[in-house]
């Protein structure tokens, strides 16, 4: 393509090291540390990437899954403050949303934090944070990795500093960094988030309410997502699970459709609508490919597009006991799709627009408020991609955005 890029991968603290929260930590400003690590790394890139041949005035932040949630966090950090750190963003199967319907607070973190203090003999300390800092790293790591208590969620917490409100609320308020955005999700994201073993409507309702949804809202969700396999996902699984996969539950496809929408698809649509509504360039995709090694019960599930985006046709890194080469035994259209997608991503990195890909006549439509479209990637079509109205499960997703998000 004649479009070189410089890629920089960053480190940040995870688990309790990066996302522990409490009133004591908030009082001294030690909140959302993992996200602050990322912010510091972006400052480093701004100051130093020129020495590596990069352009500090042309930085795109890019992530998938938790990485996309990290990118989403930076897009709404400090109420949408950029500090000149980046000039474009890519969200693959992730967004600015907290990841849980009821964002964690100091109050919801208190039981975990108090048990952590007990486990580290810091419960009676006058300064709990200083006491924790004196605990040997190996000991604290062992405690974090044990099952001594359940954390309310390792992610964003509203601290009136890095996050002035939940991410979904900030999107609705237009408080996000106005830079070109490329984002999308896979058709069957929900199979990665669905709970197996749900076979009755009562169990489905219990699952919905278990995430903090009011009973009346849960009843409406059950009506919007009826027990009809033809309306659920994935399409690669006909009817209900049976035989060797019967344990997935008779309402697997119902659960997968709902969970995929609430965790990924509604968030993607809200994000795309927010960008388009602010007249900021945004391109949205929908990915529909069943790769080698993935059973039909999962379909075009979470993460499976990554090998294509990297044009990793040798499948480097997939030779493990728990993974398989996604391209083994597949037709050449899979290779062609990897070429197309990787070129589109590079085009976005270098031009702020995915359409300078030099791989044929396929044009990725810009997402517009009046006529919103996704580019659907699909190896079963001649051109490998086509524009499609962003109206799938329209009523269901609108309900989620209006009633479950902030």
UniProtKB/TrEMBL annotation:
InterPro entries: AB_hydrolase_fold, AChE-related_enzymes, CarbesteraseB, Carboxylesterase_B_AS. Coiled coil: none annotated. It is an enzyme of class 3 (hydrolase). Transmembrane segments: none annotated. Residues 5-382 form the Carboxylesterase type B domain. The keyword Hydrolase applies. It comes from the Eukaryota. Gene3D superfamilies: alpha/beta hydrolase (3.40.50.1820). PANTHER family: ACETYLCHOLINESTERASE, CARBOXYLIC ESTER HYDROLASE. This is Carboxylic ester hydrolase.
């Amino acid at each position: 393509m004649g479009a070189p890029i410089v890629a920089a991968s960053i480190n940040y603290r995870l688990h309790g090291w990066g996302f522990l929260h409490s009133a004591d930590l908030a009082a001294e400003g030690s909140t959302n540390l993992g996200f602050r690590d990322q912010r510091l790394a972006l400052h480093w890139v701004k100051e130093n990437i020129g020495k590596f041949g990069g352009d500090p005035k042309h930085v795109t932040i890019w992530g998938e899954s938790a990485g996309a949630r990290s990118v989403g966090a930076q897009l709404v950090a400090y109420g949408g403050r950029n500090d000149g750190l980046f000039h474009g963003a890519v969200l693959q199967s992730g967004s600015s949303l907290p990841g849980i319907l009821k964002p964690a607070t100091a109050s919801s973190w208190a039981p975990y934090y108090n048990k952590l203090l007990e486990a580290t003999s810091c419960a009676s300390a006058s300064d709990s944070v200083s006491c924790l800092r004196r605990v040997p790293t190996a000991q604290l790591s062992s405690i974090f990795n044990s099952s001594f208590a359940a954390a309310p969620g390792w992610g964003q917490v509203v601290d009136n500093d890095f996050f002035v409100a939940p991410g979904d609320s900030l999107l609705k308020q237009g408080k996000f960094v106005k830079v070109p955005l490329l984002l999308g999700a896979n058709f069957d994201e929900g199979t990665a988030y669905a709970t197996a073993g749900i076979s009755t409507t009562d169990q489905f309702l219990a699952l919905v309410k278990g995430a903090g949804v009011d009973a009346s809202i849960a009843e409406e969700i059950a009506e919007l997502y009826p027990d009809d396999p033809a309306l659920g996902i994935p399409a690669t699984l006909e009817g209900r699970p049976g035989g060797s996969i019967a344990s997935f539950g008779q309402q697997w496809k119902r659960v997968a459709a709902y969970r995929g929408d609430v965790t990924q698809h509604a968030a993607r649509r809200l994000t795309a609508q927010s960008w388009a509504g602010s007249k900021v360039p945004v391109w949205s995709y929908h990915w529909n490919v069943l790769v080698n090694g993935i059973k039909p019960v999962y379909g075009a599930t979470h993460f499976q597009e990554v090998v294509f985006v990297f044009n990793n046709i040798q499948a480097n890194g997939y030779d493990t006991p728990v993974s398989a080469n996604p391209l083994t035994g597949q037709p050449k259209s899979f290779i062609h799709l990897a070429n197309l997608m990787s070129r589109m991503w590079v085009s976005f990195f270098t031009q702020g627009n995915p359409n300078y890909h030099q791989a044929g006549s396929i044009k990725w439509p810009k997402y517009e408020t009046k006529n919103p479209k996704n580019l659907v990637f699909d190896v079963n079509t001649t051109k490998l991609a086509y524009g499609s109205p962003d109206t799938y499960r329209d009523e269901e997703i609108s309900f989620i955005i209006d009633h479950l998000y902030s």
